[in-house]
Amino acid sequence: MREMAFLPALLALAAAAWAQPEQPDSTASPAQDAQTFESMFEAVCVTDAPNDDGGALEVSWTLSGSASPPDSIRILATPEGGEEFEAGWVLPGTDLFSLSGLEDGVPCSITLEAWAGGSPVSRSDAASATPSAQWFHSRRIGMFVITVLLAAVIFWYINRGKSGRPLFIREIAGLSAVDDAVGRATEMGRPVLYIPGIMDMDDIQTIASMVILGRVAAKTAEYGANLLVPNTRSVVMSVAQEVVKESYLQAGRPDAYRRENINYLTDDQFGYAAGVDGIMVRQRPAAIFLLGTFYAESLILAETGKSVGAIQIAGTAMPSQLPFFIAACDYTLIGEELFAASAYLSREPKLLGSLKGQDVAKLVIMLIIVIGVLASTAGTWWEPANRVADLLRFLTHVE
Amino acid sequence: MRLVLPLIVTFICGMLMILQFFIPHRPFSLLGEELSDWYMIVASAAIFLGVVNLVQVHLMKISQRARNWQYSPVVLLGFFVMTAAGAVWGVEEGRPFDYMFQNMVVPMGATMFSLLAFFVASAAFRAFRSSNWRATLLLLSAFIVMLGRVPIGDMIWRLFPGAASGAHPNLVSEVAEWLMQVPNMAGQRAVMIGAALGVVATSLRMIFGIERSYLGGAE
User: Fold this and answer.
1) In degrees, to the nearest 5, what angle opens at C-alpha A308 toward C-alphas A306 and A310?
2) Do the Cβ atoms of B201 and A54 come within 8 Å?
3) pLDDT per residue over B14-24, tens digit each?
């Protein structure tokens, strides 16, 4: 547990950040720079834009309730030592303007000009602030703490896995059936069809699918089954070719690798569905893997696969497509199981350790949800519980 | 080196993407966009790989008279005609490319999409006919949700004595909405939380080189 010793400090940091009120910009605090105008602008407040990479200010104002609203408002900016320039125009009803392109560390004065009937009718006093860049996104501290905690738990279990301690991982039926599916295809003399979803390589589900493809390809190489991988993206095709080639090399069967079997069909969603359906009907694969990101084509593919009598293993993290796969496929990997597949299939201790860490992290999140619900409920009559609920809200808030 | 270099690239890119999420300061703020732009450039260039693969595979099928080779000339004809039409006359509205796209590609896509109705029917029939209590629950929920999504559901409910003047004249649609917003939403969120954790774990495994099977499982 020594590795986890820094976690209380991290939590203390988050709690301190949560407890600390947000500091207004020093040069533009309402007390110093907010200008009160009796005519049209009641208050003008200029602050440094929060959590940005610098060069930006935020201007907010309120109009006098007694004055009739102008046709438009002109924002004028004057950097220190520079000339006044027009930063922009806004329509009445707007009370916030973001100004960018300024120089960090140089104070900038902002003046508002109300226009009506084609000419200026009122001008506010200048309010100034100094733009600066921030080194840490203050609204993402909670997310940072959670990320570090999750990473720490996962790494701790990876180390535990490497040390050789036994780890219990529940059985995932869909993954246990991979051997059977490939074996069935080999016995029947029919191909294995692997569909890696319809998204590109920048999608994490496609990446997870490529990792599983490596494991499935190793099995097909070992069993001598024919593996078909039609793709809807060129980059995915290139990666799939390399992954399958490496797996065949590792299995000692480079001669069995067929580059033309990992091919590109089309980028069009339903064109791809039609192409894959055609492959299913003509080649009648005995095993079909549908692993990755799917949209409306999921049921078209799964039902066609069902109609040709293939054993189907599907997996996706798209909640809206899961019911279709569950209805049409023999096994379905639900959400996280898709990402667990590679570790589960490899049985490598360190990868299994990461799975265990993932499960513990899930337990922590479940606890946070339960504590949050209880604290929020109890907070209606007991203030300290409300503080706990607020802390949890801060930790789980993402901007 | 063959293994180490991809691992280093993965580590650096992965860490940069994590850092740019938490650090708004330059240069981190620009790196995320920069890497995304690089990916777009690589992906755009890779389209040619796909095109070359498509042409190669189908030419090979034709030359070898492989099984079902008769479909390959149709693919190549479609590909070259569309490419030529776009290259010669442009892709603007009213040009041959646009005409073929609107009158051939779009209807064919719509045809594939409309097949979904039949597949939904067959999949639903199979899901509902299973004789266990979960399938029965699913059937009942689906029946209420479908009925609650159309006006006739509440109309039928109001035919019951006292229903129209009662506290819940739109009970069917209210129950359908509750089923969608509470049990269904809770299930979806559970899947999403699990998937998000899976994403974090997978990313960490790849960034830190623990997962290497995408490099061919090399150790």
Assistant:
1) 65
2) no
3) 999 899 999 99
